[in-house]
């Protein structure tokens, strides 16, 4: 298949871009993906001439984001694969987090210098709402791989570039981790670039799967040896709540991420206070294996009192959170949906988003005592309202 005349294509796209941006009639319509993005930019009031303010995170914030990102585990491998490609002398590799903040950038010196003038640097927020239509921001907005060429970018300053971006997801839970992008001078675009990036992302996701399995296996071996001969139920999870080892309990594959000051209910073990260990958490019963939860609703103040053989745990509640827990308790084992809670709290089904946000805040206080989908007390909890 013959390669397109890139210079001719760039001129055609410029005519289309200029007509659309000025409200004229383009010779042909832009691609559907590009049109959707341009429409978003026009609604936001972004400047196609490139006068949009750049947002660059402080160095400390960038480093903090790197340390929190799982992509730190595979970024060097991606560099070694992508920057050894035959056309690597002309492009740069960029890796962002899920917010579109550039965490790593490497590649051709000349391309890096040109990128500097665009604010395409480490720490820069490269989402659509900041810099207009671009492969990174548009891939985040569309939740799909995106390749843009020349005047398909919204800002005219980005027209001399092509960029190919592919989102990276956590292979275990599907969570968006960030975006991998290759960018370079528009007229150097090779037809295999998008395939190259997509392949690198698939390899990265596979590598992340292997790394986590290795970490869980190491944690399991270490803790099973430590708990050998120790009687009673115990659960060991990694820092994200994935179960590495269980003794005397039957847990699902993942629990809510533990916190040092928040009890978690583990079926078969009762209320457990998480203990931080290297690489994860150890959870063992703190008292009675059957939790008894008493919800006391009073005006001053509303509290949730969790009773067991150990000292009671008292959690202050806002009036709204007390209402939610009262509704959950009255619903019984069948639970209550977000829509039903919206009706109970607000009289209609129009506040589902608000309900979910309130429940999310509530679960930060009481953890897995409150189960979801539907909202209900977790298995092993006996609750009553006083």
What is the topological layout?
Blueprint: H1 6-21, H2 32-44, H3 59-68, H4 75-82, E1 92-97, E2 102-107, H5 109-118, H6 128-131, H7 135-142, E3 146-149, E4 161-169, E5 176-185, H8 193-226, E6 234-238, E7 243-247, E8 264-266, E9 270-272, E10 275-277, E11 280-283, E12 291-296, E13 302-307, E14 313-317, H9 319-331, H10 338-346, H11 352-366, E15 370-371, E16 376-377, E17 381-385
Parallel strand pairs: 12-17
Antiparallel strand pairs: 1-2, 1-5, 3-4, 4-5, 6-7, 6-11, 8-9, 10-11, 12-13, 13-14, 15-16
Helix pairs in contact: 4-8, 10-11
How would you characterize this protein structure?
- It is built from eleven helices and 17 strands.
- It is α+β, with helices and mostly antiparallel strands and 386 residues long.
- The chain has a five-stranded antiparallel beta sheet with strand order 2-1-5-4-3, with helices on both faces. Strands 7-6-11-10 form a four-stranded antiparallel beta sheet, covered by helices on one side. A four-stranded mixed beta sheet has the order 14-13-12-17.
- Helix 4 packs antiparallel against helix 8 (193-226) and helix 10 (338-346) crosses helix 11 (352-366).
- The longest helix is centred in the middle third of the chain and has 34 residues, at 193-226.
- The chain starts with 5 loop residues before the first helix and ends with a strand.
């Amino acid at each position: 298949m013959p390669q397109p005349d890139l210079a001719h294509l760039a001129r055609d796209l410029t005519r289309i871009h200029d007509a659309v941006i000025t409200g004229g009639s383009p010779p042909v319509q832009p691609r559907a993906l590009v049109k959707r993005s341009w429409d978003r930019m026009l609604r936001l009031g972004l400047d196609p001439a490139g006068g949009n303010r750049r947002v660059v995170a402080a160095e400390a914030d960038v480093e903090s984001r790197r340390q929190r990102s799982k992509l730190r585990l595979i970024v060097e491998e991606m560099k070694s694969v992508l920057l050894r490609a035959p056309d690597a002398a002309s492009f740069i590799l960029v890796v962002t987090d899920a917010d579109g903040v550039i965490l790593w950038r490497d590649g051709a010196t000349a391309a890096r210098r040109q990128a500097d003038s665009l604010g395409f640097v480490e720490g820069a927020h490269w989402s659509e709402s900041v810099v207009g239509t671009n492969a990174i921001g548009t891939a985040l907005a569309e939740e799909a791989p995106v390749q843009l060429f020349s005047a398909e970018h919204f800002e005219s300053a980005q027209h001399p570039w092509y960029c190919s971006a592919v989102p990276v997801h956590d292979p275990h839970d599907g969570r968006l981790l960030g975006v991998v992008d290759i960018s370079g001078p528009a007229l150097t675009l090779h037809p295999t670039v998008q395939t190259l990036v997509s392949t690198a992302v698939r390899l990265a996701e596979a590598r992340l799967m292997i790394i986590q399995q290795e970490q869980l296996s190491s944690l399991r071996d270490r803790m099973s040896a430590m708990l050998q001969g120790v009687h009673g139920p115990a659960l060991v999870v990694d820092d994200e709540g994935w179960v590495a080892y269980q003794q005397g309990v039957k847990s699902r594959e993942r629990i809510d991420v533990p916190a040092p000051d928040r009890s978690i209910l583990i079926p078969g073990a009762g209320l457990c206070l998480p203990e931080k260990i290297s690489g994860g958490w150890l959870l063992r019963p703190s008292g009675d294996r059957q939790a008894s939860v008493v919800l006391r609703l009073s005006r001053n103040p509303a509290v949730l009192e969790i009773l067991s053989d150990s000292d009671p745990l008292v959690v202050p509640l806002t009036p709204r959170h007390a209402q939610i827990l009262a509704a959950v308790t009255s619903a019984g084992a069948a639970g209550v949906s977000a829509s039903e809670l919206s009706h109970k709290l607000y009289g209609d089904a129009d506040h589902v988003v608000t309900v979910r946000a309130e429940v999310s805040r509530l679960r930060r206080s009481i953890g897995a005592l409150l189960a979801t989908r539907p909202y209900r007390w977790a298995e092993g909890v006996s609750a009553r309202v006083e």
